[in-house]
Specification:
It is an enzyme of class 2 (transferase). This is phosphoribosylglycinamide formyltransferase 1. By secondary structure, this protein is an alpha/beta fold. The chain has 5 helices and 10 strands. The strands form 2 sheets. Strands 4-3-2-5-6-7-8 form a 7-stranded mixed sheet, sandwiched between helices. α1 links the parallel β2 and β3.
Length: 224
């Protein structure tokens, strides 16, 4: 059926580490987690080739420099719209030839170029998509909405990125229970713990060629 869309991100045995480009806008806590996982061997077959920030004052830039990782800035304040921002980001990343793009608190709607749309870019969202997701749902706003709604569980979702907010195929989700009386800050901290495990795990699956996507549904292939 020509309408069925199937792709598998294939790892190559014995190949060089996959080059990650990490895109961020803030302190870089997700970046630091990935740096630590790679150094400890908890994330294998990958290296961070560049960190791109949408803000010149983002703390993540210094974290990258502390570890000798190249950095570039595409300042959101100097670009007129998301299309222009996206073009500038793509142009800035091209010289580094990234294999995988990792959105790590990147507070911009990045319109991926066609060659990077399938199996190339990941994001992590601090809720169980489709709940509390989409345009306007990000960061602490998510946790505040979770507490206000009174749900009993929340968590995080790692998904492939498309050109719509939080709409790409879901790779992994981790669940956190919400206790009676939890503040949104407490929920945030629980979700952060889940995120530190989920994102490296999803990246590892992608690096290892263990993700198959058919008609928007991700299947995790058993390890050989």
């Amino acid at each position: 059926d020509a309408r069925r869309r199937v792709f598998i991100f294939m790892a190559q045995t014995g190949s060089a580490p996959k080059r990650l480009a990490v895109l961020l806008s803030g302190s870089g806590s997700t970046l630091q987690n990935l740096i630590d996982r790679i150094k400890s061997g908890g994330l294998r077959g990958a290296e961070i080739g560049v960190v791109l920030s949408s803000r010149i004052d983002a703390g993540g830039l210094q974290r990258a420099k502390n570890h000798g990782i190249p950095t570039v800035v595409v300042d959101r304040k100097t670009t007129p719209d998301w299309e222009a921002m996206s073009r500038a980001v793509t142009e800035a990343l091209m010289p580094f030839k990234p294999d995988i793009l990792i959105l790590a608190g990147f507070m911009c709607l990045y319109h991926l170029p066609p060659e990077w749309r399938e199996g190339k870019c990941l994001n992590i969202h601090p809720s169980l998509i489709p709940a509390f997701s989409g345009e306007g749902m990000y960061g602490n706003l998510v946790h505040q909405a979770v507490v206000k709604r009174g749900v009993k569980v929340t968590g995080c979702t790692v998904h492939f990125v498309t050109n719509e907010y939080d709409a790409g195929p879901i790779i992994l989700q981790k669940v956190c229970e919400i206790s009676s009386g939890d503040s949104w800050e407490a929920v945030r901290d629980k979700v952060a713990v889940a995120e530190r495990e989920a994102y490296p795990a999803a990246i590892q699956l992608l690096v290892d060629g263990r993700l198959r996507v058919e008609d928007g549904i991700v299947e995790i292939i058993e390890a050989p």
